Amino acid sequence: MIRLEIVGGGRMGEALLGGLLASGWAAPAEVAVVERLAERREQLGGLFPGVAVLAEPVAAEGAVIAVKPNDVADTCRTLAGVGVQRVLSIAAGVTTAALTEALGEGIAVVRSMPNTPSLVRTGASAIAAGASATTADLDWAASILEEVGIVVRVEEHDLDIVTGLSGSGPAYVFLLVENLILAGVAGGLSHEMAEVLATQTLLGAATLLHSSDEDAAALREAVTSPGGTTAAGLRVLAEAGVPAAIVDAVLAAAERSRELGRA
Fold it and tell me: Which of 60, 193, 214, 226 is deepest in the core (most CB within 10 A)?
């Protein structure tokens, strides 16, 4: 029997599959990916030789649901019909209660919110257990997602704020970089030069923060000399309400996640 099938061959499904194979979590013959679109199945077959690329789910020890939220219920019913006993869902906004309702009782459910840096194996994922999931089920889910980044364990009600923070967070960072580039161009740099500098600045700052014993506030203070250039820039951001707007953005995304879960 197949050890794991990933239902949904989009970018996140591809990232998970690539991570699992690259790390040795599973051999190609032990995993399958289910994708409805024939053209995409052909692409996936070329990317992952030896992996079964299927149009419909089959019997497997466990499954990852990586389809659009509107397709989750039908996917769950199909998985239950072929006898899958353990499911990890990365579908945004779909609660474990909704998953269990579609799957039926007796199938362990773990819900997760990964983010797009998982595509380059630097993701941040949170997992939460459904009513029938055990610690072993959480360990299983974590072992999958750890191949594409870090994993934290939370209560399900915290997944909404996780969505607003780390799930949507890359978009906020990309917006910052977009505008750093625009500022560089406005100041006379070529777009190419501004992009190189802004991207490396982001990479360097994130690497420094990740490797430092100091927190973000301390590192910000260390680069901010009184009356200096950084202080001038930070004053403009504060006057424009940017710090508060970041908090509001995260909370707005979290609230939208709650709304999707109630829909």
Answer: 60
Task: For the chain, give every domain's residue range.
Answer: 2-157, 169-262
Confidence (pTM): 0.91
Residue 88 phi, psi dihedral angles, 5° rounding: -115, 120
pLDDT tens by residue, 157-209: 999 999 999 999 999 999 999 999 999 999 999 999 999 999 999 999 999 99
- DSSP string over 148-184: GEEEEE--GGGHHHHIIIIISHHHHHHHHHHHHHHHH
pLDDT tens by residue, 246-259: 999 999 999 998 88
Distance CA 233, CA 224 (A): 10
3 state DSSP class of 192: helix
Containing 234, the helix (H) or strand (E) segment is helix 229-239
Residue 49 phi, psi (nearest 5): -60, 140
Tell which CATH architecture fits domain 2-157: 3-Layer(aba) Sandwich (3.40)
Asked whether 103 and 81 are in contact (CB, 8 A), the reply is no
Angle between helices 229-239 and 242-262 (to 10 degrees): 50
Structure token pair of residue 82: 């072929």
- pLDDT value of position 161: 95
> Is-contact 14 41, C-beta < 8 A?
no
Half-sphere exposure of 22 (CA within 13 A, CB side): 13
- Do residues 93 and 72 lie in contact, with contact meaning Cβ atoms separated by under 8 Å? no
In the structure encoding, which two tokens stand for residue 104, read together? 């039926």
110: burial class by Cβ within 10 Å (0-12, 13-18, 19+)? buried
